[in-house]
Design goal:
Blueprint lengths: L36 H12 L10 H6 L3 H9 L26 E9 L8 E8 L3 E8 L6 E5 L14 H5 L3 E5 L19 H27 L5 E7 L1 H12 L6 E5 L4 H16 L10 H15 L37 H10 L27 H17 L21 H5 L2 H4 L6 H5 L3 E7 L7 H15 L7 E6 L14 H18 L5 E7 L15 E8 L4 E4 L11 E4 L16
Parallel strand pairs: 4-5, 4-6, 6-7, 7-8, 8-9
Antiparallel strand pairs: 1-2, 2-3, 3-5, 10-11, 12-13
Helix pairs in contact: 1-3, 3-15, 5-6, 7-9, 7-10
């Protein structure tokens, strides 16, 4: 469901200390002042976005042209609403009388302006039974909006750090632990799921009741509710957003859903399949780093120029046909430049859909061409095995298996029927009809090189959404598939996932409030071989900027200027129309 950075400890920082004071990764807002973030950001943005010409006219028209500088200053502008009570008074309010979200405020203290974040009231508390939350309310710079962030993996900590960019834009913000604290093996522990109530909190309740309680705190503090409410998250956070749209369509006006990780199908089948066919019994990868690097070079050589450019990125893996059998070693050979029998057997499994012994597809996704380097990543592959094992032991079945159940014990013929019984709890139904009628908007982004959450799964999911709302789908949901990006960030040419998420939030505000649907994201890539964390930042400078257009459109080089400059690309129809094959016939 997610991999990468270790979870921060569940304890709160000392009062008065800003959470997550690490270096800003968002290219569009770097260097903002504490009480005037938009002003300082404007000059930086104007330089970075000089290739995206803005139009004169109304603010909405300007923002719609791609001028994020203008949009940023609009979003950050305070609405002039002062608090109607002191910050400390919030700790005296009785929120337990709310039957839907009975809450308790442990502390409410003013935090001084720091690192581009204006002075704010920091509220810490919990919602029954064990949903810990943190809310931050600007004291005199509130922009009238609410932003709530999602979490990652199985959560178990309060990811307030993920709200930093929204705080710099003067949102009231909230984060929560999804109903439990870290146990056992940390962010990949599911021991908490032995409690049925905590299963429900993780599945959907914690996200919803945090929105309910926070909006109540906002109303108490400012004397009014937020004018607009937004949600954003990646991985488990992306799934939280889709769950909100399907279960609680009135909670948020706009939702940013990145690489959505639906736990039952991932922990139950896909991550299990990946770990089982990429790791030896001792936990070491079948593919060495040298072999994975060689294999990636073969795939890139065959598929890179399918989009008309030779740039080390595969725009859409579905446009390339690659036969791994052509790389097979001769009998008895085990050379660096061929695939052994075990390696060939592994790639045939990994680059195909997970299936049972009868050939039935069990999950609507697979490893994609371009993801070869990840086949030697012992840490990430091991985490997939750990995640699957923990999920299967404690959360996936109505009746838990023995405590020593191993992820390799899963029976692909017998167990999927049992796993299916828990799908309604954990998985967001692809039914956005109520969300659409409420005027809700959703921006989904997904990395084409995400090995942990297959991008085809999201294509299949949105195909199901389209079945229900038909021609109005593009007015409610927009999808952006990012070439080369791994799970929520990174890649061979690493992408700063945090920047993608915050840029998406700005586009979402423009869509909800100005009626300008997002038609592009600008993605910055780091140099080949450098690293990108989860979800960012990347190491070193951005060396390439590319637009990613709303699916199914793709970016096409216009034939002039640098191919590393986003200004030299235009939207175009894809070379192959895959829309008829997105709805994959999978069944448990």
């Amino acid at each position: 469901m997610s991999s990468g950075r270790p979870a921060p400890p569940p304890s709160d920082p000392p009062a008065g200390q800003t959470i997550g004071g690490r270096r800003r990764s968002m290219r569009f807002l770097r260097g903002a002042a504490a009480t005037a973030a938009a002003t300082a950001a404007l000059a930086v943005l104007a330089v970075l976005l000089s290739g995206a010409s803005g139009s004169s006219g109304t603010a909405a028209q300007t923002a719609g042209s791609g001028d994020l500088a203008t949009l940023d200053s609009q979003v950050a502008k305070p609405v002039g609403v002062d608090p109607v009570r002191g910050c400390g008074q919030l700790a005296k309010e009785n929120l337990a009388v709310d039957d839907e979200a009975p809450a308790w405020v442990g502390s409410a203290k003013v935090v001084a302006a720091s690192d581009g974040i204006a002075e704010h009231c920091r509220v810490v508390g919990y919602i029954e039974p064990a949903i810990r939350f943190e809310v931050n309310l600007p004291t005199d710079t509130w922009n009238g909006r609410y932003f709530q962030t999602g979490c990652g993996a199985f959560c178990g900590w309060v990811p307030a750090e993920s709200c930093i960019d929204a705080q710099r834009l003067n949102f009231a913000t909230a984060a929560q632990n999804m109903g439990h604290d870290l146990t056992g093996v940390g962010m990949f522990s599911a021991l908490w799921a032995r409690d049925p109530g905590l299963r429900e909190d993780f599945a959907h309740r914690s996200t919803h009741v945090t929105a309910v309680a926070t909006k109540r705190l906002i109303e108490l503090y400012y004397g009014q509710r937020p004018e607009r409410s937004y949600f954003g998250g990646c991985s488990s956070g992306g799934r939280e957003g889709q769950m909100e749209a399907s279960r609680y369509p009135d909670d948020f006006d706009g939702i940013v859903s990145g690489d959505p990780a639906h736990p039952q199908r991932l922990g139950g089948v896909y991550n299990n399949w990946i770990a089982r066919h990429s790791l030896r019994p001792d936990g070491s990868p079948i593919f060495s780093q040298a072999k994975a690097t060689w294999l990636h070079k073969q795939v890139i050589a065959a598929c890179d120029d399918a989009d008309g450019l030779t740039d080390g990125l595969i725009e859409d893996p579905r446009n390339c046909t690659f036969d791994f059998a052509d790389l097979a070693c001769a009998s008895g050979e085990d050379a660096a430049g061929c695939l052994t029998g075990k390696e060939l057997a592994a790639v045939k499994k990994l680059y195909g859909f997970p299936r049972n012994s009868k050939g039935r597809i069990l999950y609507p996704g697979r490893v994609e061409l371009g993801q070869e380097m990840q086949l030697a990543d012992a840490k990430s592959l091991g985490e997939m095995g750990q995640l699957s094992m923990e999920w299967l032991r404690h959360a996936a079945f109505r009746k838990n298996p023995p405590g020593d159940f191993d992820f390799r014990d899963l029976d692909y013929d017998r167990d999927p029927a049992k796993l299916r019984k828990m799908l309604p709890l954990y998985e967001a139904k692809p039914d956005f009809r109520k969300f659409q009628r409420a005027g809700g908007k959703m921006l989904v982004y997904h990395g084409w090189a995400d090995i942990g959450v297959a991008p085809r799964e999201q294509l299949d999911y949105l195909a199901e959404v389209r079945k229900r709302i038909g021609s109005q789908t593009d007015d409610t949901v927009r999808l952006f598939l990012i070439p080369g990006m791994k799970h929520c960030g990174g890649g061979v040419y690493p992408v700063d996932g945090r920047d993608v998420g915050t840029q998406s939030l700005l586009r979402m505000v423009n869509w909800v409030e100005n009626g300008v649907a997002p038609d592009r994201l600008e993605v910055g890539y780091g140099a080949k071989g450098t690293q990108g964390g989860f979800p960012g930042p990347i190491e070193g400078p951005v060396v390439r900027n590319r637009p990613v257009f709303s699916y199914p459109q793709v970016a096409r080089y216009d034939g002039s200027g640098s191919t590393d400059d986003a200004a030299n690309f235009v939207p175009a129809a894809p070379p192959v129309d895959h829309t008829g094959s997105e709805d994959i016939a999978w069944k448990w």
